[in-house]
């Protein structure tokens, strides 16, 4: 997907006059616009067009707008879609919105309605792109942790305190505290609660699993919501994470 500061809007409609009208409208707010008469033309573009938002007619020659939406969802492509149609009804609108569409507009629609929907789609795209970049950075940081630091991070995420971790790993509390300080710094975590959230997200990633050492009575970290609450209570009660 396009993640530059100059978003591209793909307009897919089989009516040339509609396409040109929408191009003129969207260019008034300084957007780049790519026009297509069908889903097949959009998917077969060379080079591919990677839009920040798609303005999509429901009924098209060949594959329908709904079929394109289904393909994008199946491919985990989260480009926001604004549907437009001259033959819409409530069930169609509900179907589109449930599948993640930004808006479902019936022709003729007000120009401002379309502009507002496209702006919302672009902002959503930018937010998702920023989130992807942030989590890519988290994975890069996690990769530079030592095996011991990953081990201690998993135990911290499970709600263990320094004394418990030291006992389980057979090291001193001072050693655990030093490792924890290094982990927090490397992961960019401002608090133990931040670290728990990061650890939980890493656990869901098959490429970078955060697998805790499950020796003795320790059976892995609990669900994040409970762990975060537990850590937050400890922070309030102790006021010192080093204890």
From TrEMBL:
<dbReference type="InterPro" id="IPR016032">
    <property type="entry name" value="Sig_transdc_resp-reg_C-effctor"/>
</dbReference>
<dbReference type="Pfam" id="PF00072">
    <property type="entry name" value="Response_reg"/>
</dbReference>
<feature type="region of interest" description="Disordered">
    <location>
        <begin position="205"/>
        <end position="243"/>
    </location>
</feature>
<protein>
    <submittedName>
        <fullName>Two component transcriptional regulator, LuxR family</fullName>
    </submittedName>
</protein>
<keyword id="KW-0805">Transcription regulation</keyword>
<feature type="compositionally biased region" description="Basic residues">
    <location>
        <begin position="226"/>
        <end position="237"/>
    </location>
</feature>
<dbReference type="InterPro" id="IPR001789">
    <property type="entry name" value="Sig_transdc_resp-reg_receiver"/>
</dbReference>
<dbReference type="GO" id="GO:0000160">
    <property type="term" value="P:phosphorelay signal transduction system"/>
</dbReference>
<feature type="modified residue" description="4-aspartylphosphate">
    <location>
        <position position="57"/>
    </location>
</feature>
<feature type="domain" description="Response regulatory">
    <location>
        <begin position="8"/>
        <end position="122"/>
    </location>
</feature>
<dbReference type="InterPro" id="IPR000792">
    <property type="entry name" value="Tscrpt_reg_LuxR_C"/>
</dbReference>
<dbReference type="InterPro" id="IPR036388">
    <property type="entry name" value="WH-like_DNA-bd_sf"/>
</dbReference>
<dbReference type="GO" id="GO:0006355">
    <property type="term" value="P:regulation of DNA-templated transcription"/>
</dbReference>
<keyword id="KW-0902">Two-component regulatory system</keyword>
<keyword id="KW-0238">DNA-binding</keyword>
<dbReference type="Pfam" id="PF00196">
    <property type="entry name" value="GerE"/>
</dbReference>
<dbReference type="GO" id="GO:0003677">
    <property type="term" value="F:DNA binding"/>
</dbReference>
<dbReference type="InterPro" id="IPR011006">
    <property type="entry name" value="CheY-like_superfamily"/>
</dbReference>
<keyword id="KW-0804">Transcription</keyword>
<feature type="domain" description="HTH luxR-type">
    <location>
        <begin position="138"/>
        <end position="203"/>
    </location>
</feature>
<keyword id="KW-0597">Phosphoprotein</keyword>
């Amino acid at each position: 997907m396009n993640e530059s500061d100059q978003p591209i809007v793909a307009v897919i409609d089989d009516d040339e006059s509609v396409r040109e009208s929408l191009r003129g409208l969207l260019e008034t707010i300084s957007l780049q616009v790519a026009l297509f008469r069908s889903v097949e033309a959009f998917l077969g573009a060379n080079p591919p067009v990677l839009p920040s938002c798609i303005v999509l007619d429901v009924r098209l020659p060949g594959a329908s707008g709904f079929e394109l939406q289904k393909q994008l969802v199946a491919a985990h492509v989260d480009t926001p879609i604004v549907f437009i149609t001259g033959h819409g009804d409530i069930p169609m609108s509900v179907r589109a919105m449930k599948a993640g569409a930004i808006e479902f507009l019936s022709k003729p629609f007000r120009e401002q309605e379309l502009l507002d929907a496209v702006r919302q789609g672009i902002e959503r795209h930018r937010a998702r792109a920023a989130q992807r970049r942030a989590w890519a950075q988290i994975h890069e940081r996690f990769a530079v942790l030592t095996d011991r630091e990953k081990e201690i991070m998993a135990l911290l995420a499970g709600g263990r305190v320094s004394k418990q971790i030291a006992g389980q790993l057979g090291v001193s509390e001072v050693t655990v505290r030093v490792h924890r300080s290094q982990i927090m710094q490397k992961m960019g975590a401002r608090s133990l609660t931040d670290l728990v959230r990061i650890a939980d997200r890493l656990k869901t990633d098959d490429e970078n699993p955060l697998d805790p050492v499950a020796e003795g009575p320790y059976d892995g970290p609990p669900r994040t919501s409970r762990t975060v609450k537990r850590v937050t209570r400890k922070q309030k009660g102790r006021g010192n994470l080093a204890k």
